[in-house]
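From: lab user (bench 3)
To: helpdesk
Subject: output format question, protein + flavin mononucleotide

Hello, I'm new to running complex predictions and I'm not sure whether the block I got back is the full result or only part of it. Here's what I submitted:
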Amino acid sequence: MKTLIACYSFTGNTLTVAKELEKQINADFTRIEPIKERWYVIKAVHAYLEKKVPIKDCETDISDYDCLIVCGPIWAGRAPSGILEYLSKVQNTAGKKCAALVTMGGNGNEIATEQIKTALEEVGMQFIGKLKLGKNELKSGSWKDMLEEFSELFQ
Ligand SMILES: Cc1cc2nc3c(=O)[nH]c(=O)nc-3n(C[C@H](O)[C@H](O)[C@H](O)COP(=O)(O)O)c2cc1C
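Helpdesk reply: Thanks, we reran it on our side. This is the complete output you should expect:
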């Protein structure tokens, strides 16, 4: 399956995992990067309020792909503002598959992955799976086995 990974990462956790996924499934990769990074509290408040922020140019046209995987951290229980902006910009999505990969400091909840799922389903995509990795999995390295299982969805 020809897959595009779209990844936002502020402190590098999601980037490490998403880069490993890129290798495992031989995907293309695009970085989601806000034009301006804000202070911690502002980031959390913006995410909580589901505010979008401008992002740098990246691959938003997925006409050449069968599948899109959106990756990022969880902020204030939600998807970061740069990811929300990316989701509003993706084009040529109808009939394509999609998935979400999130990393977090705690155990997390379903809101962030639901935000990604809902936004992509609204533009005609089929959501095929999600992977949520918490601090324990990231620290212990057990994320690697979980990632291998997740990557089978995209073979
Ligand atoms: C502004 C901000 C808010 C955060 N809010 C949460 C949260 O609500 N729940 C959680 O489990 N982790 C939270 N975290 C921790 C990150 O989700 C976690 O460290 C993640 O792995 C970071 O990914 P990154 O290194 O790719 O940016 C927050 C981090 C930041 C910077």
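A quick orientation on your result: The CA atoms of residues 17 and 126 lie 23 Å apart. Let us know if anything else is unclear.
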